[in-house]
Design brief:
Length: 451
């Protein structure tokens, strides 16, 4: 297909990648040809196709090859790829490295893995080198030096590995970053105004995403090991010391928004992340750039003012940390700001304008369980250890245990303003767990004047 066939480009389904070198070769160097090339590239941008924009070859520095010209699927979709002889006949000062023997197999391997990953049930796939820039380490060290990790001592313990994929696994060459869509089909914030009920974060309303993701990562990893015998493969999701968001950005899946999470143009804030580290040289995709612009919706909505600055989070103030990671009593100054959020928080994610491009997931394992859509606080407060375990078997909530969970429920009851819940709090004032008992006394006191 010649480059000028812009109408055909418009009708190609899915993402299109274009090699500007071969595109330019096709158009030649005349002024009208250039105009035609830039027109095509503009269409690419408008329909979220990508192209190699380095133009380094024009500056005479050479194409970065494995670094920037990524999934050039020219043969499949777009331009005719000239041979090396043809290219040199064109008297270009720079050889076309995207057809060199080194990058070509990597491109083919990426295309195969991408196809297999989508078949395995992932919604987004990207490729990065097993390497992160020094800024990731600096920012992580800054976060730790400020004590923003609170009691998550494991973050400091393995900071070196978190900042350097090859410190975690020296043989790793490439990282396949996978995203799984968990976009909700209702407004995640709609239960916040129902004061006698609890709000459970979207990600925790059914099965544990770690289990779902890990199963698929292992399936993909196994397939890769069979397809390329001898390849080393390790899979990670969440709990390993891996900087998942910076890697996902490097792999082009999205960018770290001002709320610090990864935002994807096609999925908004709703992607779980997981990785396949491998000894295979797969090259890398182009990193995504920041599209937050002047927006500050996520920073403005945070109930506990947990962002000291855009792109920085003080976990100690984040409701997700307070309800899930933090043991012991919650700072009384923060309790009134938590509302009825008893497990995690979605406020900053939910207000992101990029969610308008997100679609609801179709994963049965994440379909909200009826009893977790808007559970009554009184019912949750009555859970003993056995009932808690039974209710949350297979759920991420199970990890925090009955005591931390009921502590959170007591905070929500204290914030409810519902006189009818005072007796529920009072019933827990002598709880065997001192932290639950203290939170219950706090709640009962808060409800003393409630009518
Ligand atoms: C620790 C942790 C938490 C902590 C701390 C969160 C945090 N933002 O650091 C707590 C418990 C608070 C938490 C909460 C949540 N988490 Co969490 N969490 C993690 C974990 C295990 C590590 C994250 C980490 O390394 N943080 C350390 C900080 C320093 O790293 P960072 O956030 O990347 O910080 C970067 C920015 O600050 C940035 N930066 C700093 N200054 C500047 C300046 C500029 C200009 C720029 C551009 C960038 C920048 O650079 C830093 C380094 O890259 C990851 C899994 C993993 N292994 O990566 C999941 C993970 C980040 N969590 C996840 C989720 C879903 C959540 C919640 C939404 C859950 C919920 N609903 O309650 C909330 C969201 C809260 C929020 N706004 O971040 C997902 C996010 C998926 C995504 N699309 O991004 C992850 C990736 C898990 C997964 N595998 O899917 N989490
Ligand atoms: S998850 Fe909630 S508390 Fe944490 S930063 Fe986002 S809005 Fe703030
Ligand atoms: S809400 Fe706005 S500032 Fe926050 S991540 Fe989304 S686009 Fe960026």
């Amino acid at each position: 297909m010649p480059i000028a066939a812009a109408s055909q480009l418009r009708s190609i389904p899915g993402e299109v990648w274009i090699c500007a070198i071969s595109a330019t070769f096709q158009t030649g160097r005349s002024k009208p040809a250039w105009a035609s090339l830039w027109k095509v590239l503009a269409i690419c941008q408008s329909r979220r196709a990508r192209y190699c924009g380095t133009r380094r070859w024009m500056a005479g520095t050479g194409c970065v090859g494995g670094g920037s010209i990524r999934d050039v699927i020219c043969e499949e979709y777009f331009v005719y790829m000239p041979t090396q002889e043809e290219f040199f006949a064109f008297r270009s000062p720079v050889p076309p490295p995207c057809f060199c023997a080194m990058t070509r197999p990597a491109m083919d391997m990426r295309a195969e893995i991408r196809r297999k990953a989508m078949e395995t049930g992932f919604d987004a796939v990207g490729f990065a080198r097993a390497h992160l820039g020094p800024e990731v380490r600096e920012r992580l060290l800054h976060f730790l030096a400020e004590g923003r990790h609170g009691s998550m001592g494991w973050m400091a313990d393995r900071a070196g590995q978190r900042a350097h994929p090859q410190a975690l696994w020296p043989e790793a060459v490439s990282v396949v970053v996978l995203g799984l869509n968990y976009g909700p089909n209702t407004d995640p914030l709609e239960t916040l105004a129902q004061h006698d009920r609890a709000t459970v974060s979207v990600y925790a309303r059914n099965r544990d995403y770690h289990d779902v993701l890990k199963k698929r990562l292992k399936a993909l990893g196994r397939w890769m090991a069979e397809r390329w015998p001898g390849a080393g493969i390790k899979v990670f999701v969440d709990t390993a010391p891996v900087a998942e968001k910076p890697l996902a950005q490097a792999a082009g899946l999205g960018w770290q928004g001002k709320h610090t999470n990864l935002v994807a143009r096609s999925h908004g804030s709703w992607l779980f992340l997981g990785e396949v580290f491998t000894t295979l040289d797969l090259g890398a995709d182009a990193p995504e750039v920041d599209h937050c612009g002047s927006c500050s919706a996520c920073l403005d909505i945070c109930p506990t003012a947990a962002f000291p600055a855009p792109y920085e989070l003080d976990a100690r103030r984040c409701i997700s940390y307070l309800t899930i990671e933090h043991r012991g009593p919650i700072d009384p100054a923060l309790r009134p700001l938590m509302g009825n959020r008893i497990y995690g928080c979605d406020d900053c994610l939910a207000v992101c304008p990029w969610n308008k491009f997100a679609r609801a997931h179709s994963e049965p394992a994440f379909a909200p369980r009826t009893e977790l859509r808007a559970p009554l606080l009184a019912d949750l407060a009555a859970l003993d250890d056995a009932a808690f375990r039974a209710m949350f078997a297979g759920s991420p909530v199970k990890r925090i245990g009955r005591d931390r969970f009921v502590r959170n429920v007591m905070v929500a009851i204290g914030n409810s303003g519902e006189a009818a819940l005072r007796a529920t709090a009072q019933a827990r004032c002598e709880d065997a767990d001192p932290v639950v008992a203290e939170a219950a006394r706090w709640a009962a006191l808060r409800l003393e004047d409630a009518t």
